[in-house]
Each structure stands twice: as C-alpha cells, then as structure tokens.
Design goal:
The protein has a single domain, classed as 2-Layer Sandwich (HIT family, subunit A), CATH 3.30.428.10. It has eight helices and eleven strands. The strands form two sheets. An eight-stranded antiparallel sheet has the order 3-4-5-7-6-9-10-8. It has a three-stranded mixed sheet with strand order 1-2-11. A hairpin with a 4-residue loop joins strand 9 and strand 10. It starts with a helix and ends with a helix. 37% of the residues are buried.
Length: 251
Amino acid sequence: MIQQQVLQLLEKEAPKLVGIETREVCGMILQHNPKRAVSSGAKVDSASIAKRPCFLCKDNRPAGQGSVVWNDDFEILVNPFPILEGHLTIPLRRHEPQRLMSYLNDMADLAKALPKFILFYNGAKCGASAPDHMHFQAVYAGQTPMENGKRTPSQKRMKKFGSISELRTYIEYWQDENYEQMINLFCKYNEVEDSYTFYLFERRKHRPCIYDIGVMISPGALDMAGILVIPQLEIFKGITHGIVTRIFDEV
C-alpha cells in the first residue's frame, strides 16, 4: 500500500519541526518558521527561473534523498523544510510547467491513496516556488483552521466542492486554455464516506505590497488554509489583526 511506504519514508527522513513558534491572530495560526525564508523569498520571475537548475528534477536533488514512486508519473518526497507534520512534495517525474487541469484526476486519485493526508496545489503565480515543474504537496490531515471549521480572513473567497466534475466545470468556465487562473487547491478524501472535499481559493496576486518593503510574507496554499508562515521573528511578533486582514484582502 502506497500510504504505508510514504509513512515509512517520513519516519526515516522527516526533519523535526524545531525552532518554530506559533500564535493565533483572528483565527489564523501565525507560524515563525525561519527555514521557510528560502521558499518565501524565492525569485519566481521567468529570468530567474531560467538561470537556476530545477530543484525538483531528480538529477538536481540531494544525493541519497529517498522517494516513493506513484502511478509511474509522480514521485513522493519528504519536504526538507516542512511547515506542518508529514509535509511532502510530489513532483512529476518529467519536467513540465505547473499546470493543474491535466493532472486534476491524479490529484484526486493520490488523495484517495493517501487518506491520512490532505493534498494541495500552489498555482504557478501564487505560491509555487518551482513554477517550472509540475508538483503537488501534502501534509497530515486535520492541522489547518480551514479543515477544522475556523473562519479566517484568508477564507473570504474560498469555495468548497464535493466532486471532481463540479470542480472541473467551475474552473474550466473561468479559465482560458492558454492561461491558468491564479488558484490554490486542496483535496481531501474521506475513506469512511468514500467522498471528496475540494477547497478552492481564487487569488488576485501572489504577494502583498508589504513584501516589497522587506516583509517576507508570500502566501501559498497553507497560508490560505489558515497557517500564515512568517520567516522573520520581528514581523511574527509585531503583526496585528489589521495587517493580517489587509494581506488577505489584497491577495
């Protein structure tokens, strides 16, 4: 069973969530996580991406990094800089740009194969630090305010869907075939009810204006789900309800 292989991989390779502080503001969990500075500060413009090797391609990964192959097309890796427990990165085994719709069924199938986890997708222009390489991520289910029914400022434009066909119809109605709209998406499979829940966030922009003055807040899917990752300690300590609300009004 694929899930058991993944759990064994996590037991062997998962880094400890150390050096992390949390506090709650307006229903959201603020997380000071200095190791996420690389991801939050990643340059995702076309010129910068063209200059660097793709860190999700197998030849460029750390030597000895373990993986579990799923469905021949995807490889499941332990995220070396986790945000939550059980943080996985799941890249396509060939180098293709981050585009969801061709792999939406794979996302649902993998969520069914990993019922202890919730899968998520960061759009190429709203959270993916490797927009040039198709990938999903996952964490153990039940860790986010979104899943636990807490209302947060990040959920103002969240939509829930109970079937993949309903979700696909909605996305395709708004999406140009040559341009992927800015979205973050979660997929959870409930094995007791044999059902899915999809959480869709439609985005306006990747980063808030305060990013340009040195505030390293770069919302991706987990931030939209209520885990606001803040690498800088002084920002973590000083951020207020009003600032959090404005950030999510903007993005």
